[in-house]
Amino acid sequence: MNKIFIKLLVLLIIFNSCELVINIDLPDKEKNLIINSFFCPDSLFKVNISESLNILDLLDVKYIDNATVQIFENENLIENLSPTGNGDYISSSFKPVIGNAYKIIANNANYSNVKAENIIPNLIPVISIDTSTIYDDYCECIKCKIKFSDPGNKQNFYTFSIKYTTKYYDPDNSQDSTYSYTSGCFDSDDIIIEDWFYQKNQDIIIFSDDMINGKTYDLNISFDKPYNESNDTTWVYFYLNSVSKEHFLYTRSYIQHSYSKDNPFVEPVKVYSNVSNDHGIFAGYSTYVDSIAVISKDYINK
Fold first, then answer.
1. 81, 95 in Cβ contact below 8 A?
2. How would residue 260 be classed by pLDDT, with cut points 50, 70 and 90?
3. Of the N and C termini of the chain, which has fewer Cβ atoms inside 10 Å?
4. Which of 156, 302, 178 is nearest to 242 (CA)?
5. E-strand spans in 52-125?
6. 70: which strand partners?
7. DSSP per-residue letters across 146-179
8. R_g over Cα of the chain
9. Is the pLDDT of residue 85 over 60?
């Protein structure tokens, strides 16, 4: 019995003292500049420049504030963007124009030069917004049909979102006051929706015109009716973005990447890039905004 006990004790010591340490010598990966810019006719040109991270890096994002960032319109140099901190570079006065081609070239002595090109697609207007009220066991909802006409001469891509702004009476100041809160949540089971994501308290859907090419279409959504006091008015704004193909591919792949990155049973999805070093995005879009007003139990088109 003692011999058996001694043998078990020896085996236990051996197993507990065995530790295999494997050192893997990974080669240093070249650092790259990352370009991030979504541009539209309503805003000054703005670009963010940062440094790519190694897979084992535990550092925060490193922003690059000493790069040369050039913006070209139809191959003509428009401006060298000015750095404003945290990797941001902003034009002093230039806003891009629908239909023109834009190119960015970013240079820094410590990195390879990078460039990208894109356009701003044509604006797609909202023709009308038809509304109706529906009720369920929990709340009163507003159902909307957002009508727009898809051009049939080329493939088109879209994103869509909403946002609420409430105007209320301030008795302390005896005047109307306005506050905006980004509570853009809505529901939809529309068949054209290709993907959906949630960002900064807003639901955002993406879709192409694969099913509606050249047609006039009603996009169906619904949302909980905002609560109003008797003198309050809530404006619900509808944002129909016409986005470039590169914008769409980046957004869709980013959504799929976000879904897969923490799931060990799903193959990882690479985020699309149209930048020359395959890091980042440079893409244009145009936005059409329409709205309805929710007043007590009524709502009207703006």
1. no
2. confident
3. N
4. 156
5. 68-73, 76-80, 82-85, 88-90, 101-108, 111-119
6. 80, 105
7. EEEE--SSS--EEEEEEEEEEEEEETTTTEEEEE
8. 26
9. yes
